[in-house]
Amino acid sequence: MPTTAPSTLRYQIxxxxxxxxxxxVEITWSGPxxxxxxxxxxxxxxxxxxxxxxxxNVSQVHAHHAGHPVRVDKVGKxxxxxxxxxxxxxxxxxxxxxxxxxxSVRSSxxxxxxxxxxGANVFLYPQTDVPYMIELEVVPFPGWDVATALxxxxxxxxxxxxxxxxxxVDSPVExxxxxxxxxxxxxxxxxxxxxxxxxxxxxxxxxxLPRILEAAHAVFGGLLPYTRYVFxxxxxxxxxxxxxxRSSASIIFDPLQLDNxxxxxxxxxxxxxxYFHLWNVKRLRPQNLGPFDYQHEVYTHLxxxxxxxxxxxxxxxxxxxxxxxxxxxxxxxxESLRILDMTPGHKVQSVAEASWDAWIKFYRPDGNTPxxxxxxxxxxxxxxLFMDLSLRHATNGRGSLDTVLQTLWEQxxxxxxxxxxxxHALEEVGGPIVRTWLSRWVYGTDxxxxxxxxEFGLALKKEWKNPRMTPAFTGLIVExxxxxxxxxxxxxxxxPGEAAGLAPGDEWIAWDQVRxxxxxxxTRLAHCVPxxxxxxxxxxxxxxxSYTLIPEAPKPDKWALEPEAxxxxxxRQQFRDWLGAPLP
Length: 584
Prior knowledge:
Oligomer: single chain
Number of domains: 4
Helix content: 25-40%
Number of helices: 15
């Protein structure tokens, strides 16, 4: 008995006039399909947990069937319905434009220098259970090249195939006159597509990146879970960020940072973070994070694991790979502890709650954010640090966070796990004591404290960057205004600034009746007397007002994890087992 050929969904995206910042998309459906035919555009993109309403950039939607126009009805904020007059369902076309001029890894961008798009921003999908095959043709501006992790077909031009819609939108595309670099690891090709790096020396990055990837692979072992991996890297001044994908990663940073000794480790950590996600998030994930519901928020209490643990490992991998010295990694962990301690929200919101509330809080910060929220990136990474050290101590070195990830990978692999799987894996490795850690650090708001530092040859010290200049504490987070004044960005809960009545958005223009410039603030604070009132003059909503601020004693602005002088050999060995390098 003959079988019915599967339906085919063919996307074509072109950029004939990139100066208009509009991609033109044409979709051709061939094969059976129930009518009316409903189409939708995602309202969010996986990896960035905020409803961003991509449909706002869609215009000029029209359709044809058998050479005749088809009525297109918009039936929702990101949904369209097509109904051919004759009710048939064979071959027809849908076309529209997408405005693309947001320079980030989660969005799409097109100008006369390059084109970049995430599928979730630009590709409508059919709301149907009918199976279909996907083909994508990219028609770049003349003279441009095209790069993506999608498999290229044998057809002429830039034609690619995707197993399903999830794969299509999880494979961003870069178009332009970019630079290509590549290397092999375990027999698998890894590519770097570099835009904006024409005159940049990449020798250090090309030397260090394979070593970091090897260190990440060593955590899980086995065969690499992909046949080719692509880094799409954009060099943009004063920009930074990354977004993970199943067989690729999008990364943006300032090329000048590659030559900055203070910034270069952060660039390596960015690469390490996005690459580690190919296991932790893209494959090892909660059950509802793939296949996706693209029309609604997808909630989980586990972003502290998905993002926080990944951030922890990003820095751990730098030490284990030998690309960054242990003291730089320890400095990063210590500074993270200081920042968490200075954030009142860590006593208000648990890291599990922060994960759940990401859709309404993390990506929408305001002046009150530090007071009521905690970052699941920051605290999640520190919880990972504390659990890793605690597991190693409790098991006498037989278990670690590596073991937990390996346990999850062996049990669930690429199939998704229930919400309680991480807790169970932690307890399986560490025993019943893990319940206490979870209760305090994950589901509660207890301070992150440990007496284990000496067990790893370390001591946590709280010091000053400049002991001769220690600014008094006000609880005000400030930034430079356009007029070189001090603009108050946030007022920390329970601080002198809150007691004084100051508020986010205030422009601080005078200190005790003397004009205040942004560059003078730290000097003023260093010379004032804690407990002695200061008259603060501000503009609020264009009105001149004065308040009395009573600064408190300075708080150490430099936390450090330093080697103990009398570390035991056991402590040194535990440090080496943890970071993969000798104790400094």
